[in-house]
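Model it.
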Amino acid sequence: MKQIVKRLLPRPALRAAAFRLPLRQRVRIAKLLVGGPARSRGPAAPAASSPARAWHDNLQAVTGLLEADGVDYFCLPHTDPKRSAVAVAAEHRAQVLRLLRGRLAGSGMVARTLDTVGRRVSPQRCAVVQVYRAGTAAAGTPLLADAYACEIEFWSTVKDKGWHAPRQVGPRAHKVGTVLGVDNPVQYVAAERLSAFMPRDAEPRYRSRAVYAEPGPTDVQFPIDVVYTWVDGDDPAWRLRKAQALGEDEDDSFAGLATNASRFTSRDELLYSLRSLHAFAPWVNHIYLVTDDQTPSWLDPTSPYVTLVSHKEIFGDVGRLPTFNSHAIESRLHKVHGLAEHFLYFNDDMILGRPVLPTQFFFANGVAKFFPSSSLVDVNPPAPADAPVDVAAKNNRRLLQSRFGTQLYQKMRHVPYPLLRSVLEEIETELREESHATASHQFRDRGDLSIPSSLAHYWAHSTGRSVPGSISHTYIDLGRLIAPVMLARLVRQRNVDVFCLNDTNSDDGDLAEQAAMVRDFMEAYFPFNAPWELSGRMDLTQRTREPEPAGAPAAR
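Modeled.
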């Protein structure tokens, strides 16, 4: 941690002061590190600013130019799924270079001539031309530059004895190989056949070859959904329901550990987590948002991409509503109507930090991955001083020992959880009493199980349906003094798959400042709208916390 501070705050006096200043001034330091004073909030960039849209736009710009000038080509998968590739015969290189010079001038497009390993070379020596639209996102943050470029490759034609037809040979390695018979038929393919990063859309289709039209054995072919659980802790009606339920709860001491206001405070993390899906996981099939009949102010409820799911729909006649227990809600996720067998469970504070592929979470044969943490579960039985999450982990361990004879000792990383719906259904069937008891607890209880965040992964692993995986992530506790510096570093480097912003126990007086800090960071990271957002949404700075309902008991 000292090294992080040293890199971002090289001056010793400033570094020391950062830990002594109140939160308001630490936020100002973070703004400077991010790249200057916070800009005034204007209209966000359109949905077309997403990486997936940039991939399509760059590829279509290149293929459109080639077709308009009568240059033969075919598209093929790039070794980097974020980029596209177009093969052109080497004898047309001079024509293509002239075409690019003439047509791209003043268009905002950039063409760079490269060798086979990506180094800049003169046009006369190039094997590849990289084409992309230049520009940066709001506040000067790089977003859609060469990372999503289209690259034109110049393929040679070889005529050898012993071959029934001439062959085309590419200048660099590819997934399906670099040698292709000229008689391999032309076939138009969907974008998903050219990149695992692309969604499973039927249109547009791109001119390719038949050899690239079929998926390989390691390509994920099944749909992957996303499920969120979300609560707006600033909703007066919801807070009144919580206050009434607290007054009726019999286990005040344990319920109070999980009812701190910061646990339910919304800083619009969900808005940005969903934007991160739009930007970095466009292959997601559908998104389900599970709520207590709440709708985010910025969400278009008619969007075909996101379905709102009420607690009533997934609980049915099981459990007790209203519930304020995340363990209870999570125990019913497999009851979401229409949910795919393979899905990712997100908390709203889990945010993708860079492009990820389906294979980050699932193998092509359907086996899921899970991400164990280096943090360990205490080997002792549940104790009165244990946090609710630790008690649930120990309950999971007891059941796994009984069922499989295995010892649960590692927690899971706080990252999206790859899950199989059939495993959750199986757990409810085989652990019906314990599962339904968890669903019946309105607040976290000593009898809870933590099913999708822990138990389901070990259950799937013990039955051959899940294996350990790895994922790059970072966790930032907004209540820590170092949080502004960590946010500044993250927005500059963008070097993790997932990051989490959380706050476990901050004072109410810090919440407004934290909201401003989070807003500036998120708007720098995701300066565009997703297609499910309404225009004219409420600014975070305009949100005010409603007073507690009269007679509400304090969280204990």
